[in-house]
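lol forgot to send this yesterday, sorry. struct tokens for the thing we talked abt
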């Protein structure tokens, strides 16, 4: 009976020793595989550090200067051409890691979860910076169309003044002015919708379905007006350009609305706070790995 008990104990010890050796061997193999992974991770961290994202909040939500615009463009470019490609290399190396035991797999799962957070952080910061830069370009486009509007308005008024002083052109002037005034009143009543509490999507649809067709009809009415006076013709030409600038303005404003809504829905402060947290995220992983090594 004693012999049987000794054999059972010996068998158990042999199994435990074999399991321990298997875990220890897997740890050593795992750490060897992770050397390449961590090398690529280090490159990723270095490329992110170069962006100085902890200072990004100084570039966002304040007056946009040319210097700030260039810095934001540079950050977007680096994220696009350096950080994201390096993330892909890092991820490929990580996906190639193979573990054999549950104990090592449990530790590795911590690293995988951390990687997902790193990847999400990079996606979030890239999406926000890219979108913010788009908003800058869009607002500049809107400003440009406003300037075109003002330029052609001044031109229209110049030819209007000339037509008023010429008795032969006064009839054509009155005809065109009546049409322009009617168009202006029509547009004014329609534009008020954009100042209301409708959703962004409703306003965008309204621009497409109401404002743009209305402005196109204004252009068509102008072109159909029967006038022959030279100054009034030039006045009509300038007014037509005004309508085209308004069409482009509202198209871009529709685009800007969408960008603004997306930016508002992105928690930029939380994203920027993760810049610091992401650097220490693997502490729990290394603690777990060290404890496993001590037990093996």
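and heres what i got for the seq, position by position
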């Amino acid at each position: 009976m004693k012999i049987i008990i000794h054999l059972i104990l010996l068998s158990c010890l042999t199994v435990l020793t074999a399991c321990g050796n298997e875990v220890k061997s897997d740890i050593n193999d795992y750490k060897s595989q992770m050397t390449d992974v961590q090398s690529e991770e280090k490159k990723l961290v270095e490329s992110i550090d170069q962006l100085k994202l902890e200072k990004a909040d100084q570039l966002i939500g304040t007056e946009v200067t040319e210097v700030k615009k260039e810095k934001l463009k540079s950050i977007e470019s680096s994220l696009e051409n350096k950080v994201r490609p390096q993330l892909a290399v890092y991820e490929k190396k990580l996906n190639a890691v193979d573990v054999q035991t549950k104990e090592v797999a449990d530790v590795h799962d911590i690293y995988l979860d951390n990687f997902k957070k790193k990847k999400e952080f990079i996606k979030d910061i890239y999406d926000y910076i890219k979108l913010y830069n788009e908003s800058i370009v869009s607002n500049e486009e809107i400003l440009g169309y406003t300037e075109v509007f003002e330029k052609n308005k001044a031109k229209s008024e110049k030819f209007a003044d000339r037509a008023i002083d010429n008795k032969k052109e006064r009839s054509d002037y009155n005809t065109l002015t009546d049409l322009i005034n009617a168009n202006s009143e029509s547009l004014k009543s329609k534009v008020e919708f954009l100042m209301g509490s409708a959703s962004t999507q409703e306003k965008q649809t309204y621009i497409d379905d109401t404002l743009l067709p209305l402005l196109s009809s204004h252009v068509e009415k102008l072109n159909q007006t029967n006038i022959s006076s030279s100054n009034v013709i030039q006045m009509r030409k300038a007014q037509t350009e005004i309508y085209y600038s308004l069409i482009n303005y509202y198209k871009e404003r529709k685009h800007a609305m969408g960008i603004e809504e997306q930016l508002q829905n992105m928690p930029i402060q939380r994203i920027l706070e993760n810049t610091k947290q992401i650097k220490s995220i693997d502490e729990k992983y290394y603690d777990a790995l060290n404890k496993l090594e001590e037990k093996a």
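The mean pLDDT is 90. anyway ping me if u want another try
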